[in-house]
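Before relying on records like the one below, remember that each one covers exactly one chain. Contacts with other chains, cofactors or solvent are not represented anywhere in the record.
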Amino acid sequence: MVSLDNYSEKLLTYDNSKDALEAYVKIYMQEQSAGMKVIHKNAARKKIIATAIYAVLFFMILSIFAFYREFKLAYGVALLALITVVWLVTSLIVFTSEKSLLHKIKEMPDAEIDSVLASEYDNCRSVFKVYGTGAAIVVVTMLLSVFLYRTPHMIFEKNNTGYGLRYYTRALHEETKVVVPDTYKGEPVTEIRGNVFFGTEALREVQLPKGLREIRGSTFEKCTNLEKIEIPEGVTRIGGHAFRGCGSLSSMTLPATVQAINGSAFRECTMLEEINLPEGIDRVGDNAFRDCQSLKSVTLPSTVVTIGDGAFRDCITLTSVIFTDPAAVGNDNPPDTGRTVGSTAFRDCASLEEIILPEGFTRIGENAFRDCYRLSHAGIPSTMEYLDRYAFRGCIHLDEIVLPEGCEQGENVFREANTKVTYQ
């Protein structure tokens, strides 16, 4: 019969000494505890620490998900699953009494194993107490998370003109209507930072503060159920992607103070039917209204200088593009030169029948009106200098067009259109 009186003798007797000793320790502890499950204090301490770390990481991941709306739910679930697996493995498999007691035995190789185990038995703790403490840590963390994130929170930060809305947190119960206050701590709310409401699918209505001066990039991007929002007087700029993907937004009124609409600001607003751009806007950004598939009518101001690349591309129901008469709005100094229609600006606007460009436009970009199949009349001003290649390609109903003398053409401007060109 094999003797396990001390650690040195065991090392000489067993090929797999560690497993044999661990098995012996386990049997010894079971016999000594008389059926009452216990855990050595070192293992218990490590389990509690591991649980506390898990709770902190759990809360951090939830907080990141709540505050950073670009952080996808799938990423959060994957991270939570990973740390949960690591926590369970370390708590149940790695940090055990057997491993803790083996470490004690290694520290005293000349002592009898039973003596070491007997002396350490008093340092054992009830398994129910240890796991109860761990469960309490996890439960408290979850309850705290539920309490903090049960409803959305607005977080403001100081700026040069008052306060700006910095975060609008995700929550277990999302609000369908949000009112951003006019003031915070007695000062005006003048700014909403980019991405604040990004992807808030529950959002249907927003009331913005009266002192707002700018809507930054991606502020309401992918708010797919947003139906009602009023832009207050004083807002001067609509940032890039500000309302991109707001597929339930059917109307939008922009105040007279707006001067710029940046790239993709209203892209993929598939229910938007009509938009009137106020006087003062000098540029419609690239892809600003691209894929607005319900857009039927657009009024462009007399002040507009640039219609950006792809600005109205794929607006398949767009039938009317009207430029404001400067005399009608009291604009005595409309741009008299350098106005441009960007590349693919109206490409694939299959319902567009007529376009009349006012004086001051000098260039029509590449593929600007390509595949506007129903376009039958294009009014070109006397200031036009250049039509880039494929500008009217595929406009099969454009039978005739009048260009000013000296207007140059790029490659295949009227390819597949069979358009008669007359100069005057």
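The chain is about 25% helix and 20% strand.
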